[in-house]
Amino acid sequence: MRTRGRLGDRLLHAYTWLIIVWLSSPIAVMILFGFNDKKSKSNTTWQGFTLRWYTELFDISDLTVALRNTLVIALVSTVITVVIGTMLGIALGRHRFRGAGATNFLVFAAISTPELVMGASLLSLFVSGNVPRDANTIIIAHVLFSLSFVVVTVRARVVGLDPSLEEAARDLGATAWGTFRQVTLPSIMPGVLAGAMLSFALSIDDYVVTSFVNGSTVTFPLWIVGAVKTGIPPQVNVMGTLIFGVGVLIAIASAVASRRRA
């Protein structure tokens, strides 16, 4: 029995590592080919090691503009999403009001709605309303599909919040705003930050919804898809590597902060 148990554990460990390698392999290829010394039009075969593309990262002007558009849209949509989503999450997690059930249903429906459906519906809305499609419509779209994720994470944090802390603050003379700023907000901040990071990540890598509402505005994912026919330059791999690296650093910092709070 012990031999069978050990064999099962080894197989489970091997299977787990196989899944990890499989999921990590595209990222590893992207990082590797950011150092590829491209000597021909193709960037799909290894041709030597170089740091050239890191020094020439912004030499392709339209790619640089696309990356800048992506980052600006992600930052703006994240700020709007966090503000609205935090207020809605607090309301749903703390108060019982008429329509709360319908609101919860809509929140989860937005998460489960296919991107194709959301993109097509937003396109129909903007076209029927004669709204010009540009960076603003992309921001509106990103806020709509990211909002539910922020609401869910904040609501989960609010549900577990001890109401006696806020009652104690009010008993000590704190105003409603002071109680929120000094007690409620710090307590739910992990949920707010988690929602913000998720919203930012969703905005950066979105292609489907953005392709419906972008108009003439080009984002990083749209540029990459458009460049497939002519060949993806190594700078794309470098930019992807840097974005991935920043995400890893944020995740590590968040984990360290959580351990310190614990």
From TrEMBL:
CDD domains: TM_PBP2 (cd06261). One of its GO terms (biological process) is transmembrane transport. The chain crosses the membrane at residues 12-35, 71-93, 105-129, 135-154, 238-257. InterPro entries: Bact_Polyamine_Transport, MetI-like, MetI-like_sf. Its main location: membrane. Keywords: Cell membrane, Membrane, Transmembrane, Transmembrane helix, Transport. It is found in: Cell membrane. GO terms for cellular component: plasma membrane. The keyword Transmembrane applies. Residues 67-254 form the ABC transmembrane type-1 domain. It is a multi-pass membrane protein. SUPFAM superfamilies: MetI-like. The keyword Membrane applies. Belongs to the binding-protein-dependent transport system permease family. CysTW subfamily. This is Spermidine/putrescine transport system permease protein.
